[in-house]
Design goal:
Helix content is 66%, strand content 2%. With 450 residues, it is mainly alpha-helical.
Length: 450
């Protein structure tokens, strides 16, 4: 998490910077870890099922969760071997690959968290102000209630959310300060899942549900390689590794971290699978990259279902993202600070730098959220590059490097397998995305010419 041997502590107040404070429990760690995992990625899980079919998507969710557990176990095993500095992800990267390794992690975490936070703002804008996709307009909650007005526009609504709601939360300086909002955010994610399940059950009994495909429909794909575009979406949905050490630092027993990670991965896998299945069951092949946009009057999220219930589904998850936002913003701010101001005192102890950097990052995130219209493409490229390195390639490389000689042969075999799978699937996904973009541009040019 930091640059100078990767200190994670700039995001903590001094009283927690000396190691394990004994203030956080396993349940608190589970809440914070689960909040780190379940973010905007859940909104694209139904779209991933649309691409893959239900059965392959469920297998992929389980496989990525398993690999995430293995990679975190690798990270924790090497934690504490760094010659100096508090335990952190960048610390073990710096121990294995020097300053270049720690700096590389800073850059990748900064890009990953920035991309994810931009997606959060895009989804919040979709929910409140509406979105457009596949040629269809999807109204937001404010537009449905008050019709189109200047203050229901996307730019103004997101600006108000950034300044009035999110900024006070990201100005808190301790991760553990968010343990209650993290708990509420998980409950809101569960509420969204339950509402979606309830709507789906209603549509099943009313005969309006759309039976989901168990396997891919190759007739809808430009090539079989398009299936790989769903892989980075799932990988990004399980990328939480940059928050492992800050959360571990606040546990009373460091050994409890493995238990907390596994509970969180199981919990989040179940939520991902349920939301993906029921979302795909509701909307079928009309499922949008941001499934929340489907919950409007025009989409028909279950004929006869009160629109208030559809709005409750959208608002519950938008509020969940609001509460998740500051937890990821901590990671973004710390890594950018380490890149821009190496060797400076901890960020939490320098109020002027803390506030100025926070304001600059929030302004940049707002600008990107207004400029980028869709979450799917952002997920694909971020998941294929930065996220796959953070969650799979870097932990595997640390084990293969094994500067302290603690890795077993089976560990190195697993690490090599992780890296090979990550490189192959990401390369195919990136190539498929580029070819699809080129094909789309060519079709557009022909349409204009005709």
């Amino acid at each position: 998490m930091g640059g100078r041997a990767g200190a994670a502590e700039p995001l903590l107040l001094p009283e927690l910077s000396g190691g394990h404070s004994g203030g956080a429990s396993v349940s608190g760690a589970v809440f914070n870890l689960s909040t780190s995992i379940i973010g905007a990625g859940i909104m694209s899980i139904p779209a991933a099922m649309r691409v893959l079919g239900v059965a392959p998507a469920l297998v992929l969710i389980a496989a990525v969760a398993f690999l995430s557990d293995v990679s975190v176990e690798f990270m924790l095993r090497y934690t504490g071997w760094a010659p100096s500095g508090p335990p952190s992800y960048a610390g073990i990267m710096g121990d294995a690959f020097g300053r270049a390794g720690a700096a590389a992690l800073n850059v990748f975490v900064a890009f990953t968290t920035a991309g994810t936070l931009v997606v959060y703002l895009i989804i919040i804008g979709d929910v409140l102000s509406g979105s457009a996709g596949a040629g269809a307009e999807h109204a937001g909650v404010l537009g449905e209630l008050f019709s189109a007005r200047w203050w229901t526009g996307r730019e103004f609504v997101i600006l108000v959310m950034v300044v009035v709601v999110l900024l006070p939360l990201v100005l808190l300086r301790r991760v553990d300060s968010l343990r209650y909002t993290s708990a509420v955010s998980i409950l809101l994610a569960a509420l969204f899942m339950l509402i979606t399940m309830g709507i789906t059950v209603y549509t099943i009994f009313s005969g309006t549900a759309k039976m989901p495909r168990m396997l891919p429909d190759f007739s809808r794909l430009s090539s079989p390689f398009e299936l790989f575009t769903a892989v980075p979406v799932i990988v990004l949905a399980f990328t939480f590794h940059f928050n492992v050490h800050p959360i571990r630092a606040e546990l009373s027993k460091a050994s409890d971290m493995k238990t907390a990670v596994r509970i969180s991965l199981v919990l989040c896998s179940v939520i991902y699978a349920a939301v993906g299945f029921f979302g795909f069951l509701l909307f079928g092949d009309d499922t949008m990259p941001d499934v929340l946009a489907n919950f409007d009057r025009s989409s028909g999220a279950g004929s006869g279902v009160p629109q208030a219930l559809n709005d409750a589904a959208r608002l519950s998850y938008a509020l969940h993202l609001v509460l998740v936002f500051p937890l990821l913003h901590y990671s973004l701010r710390v890594n950018v600070d380490e890149l821009l101001f190496p060797g400076r005192p901890p960020l939490a102890s320098d109020t002027r730098r803390f506030v100025a950097l926070t304001a600059a990052l929030m302004a940049g995130l707002y600008a990107l959220a207004i400029a980028i219209p869709s979450i799917w493409t952002l997920f694909q490229y971020t998941g294929s590059t930065f996220a796959v390195c953070i969650s799979l390639i870097f932990p595997g490389a640390i084990v293969l490097r094994d500067v302290h000689g603690i890795a077993k042969r089976k560990d190195k075999a697993m690490a090599a397998t992780m890296i090979i799978l990550a490189v192959i699937t990401s390369s195919i996904a990136i190539a498929s995305n580029i070819m699809s973009s080129i094909g789309g541009d060519a079709k557009g040019a022909r349409a204009v010419a005709s």
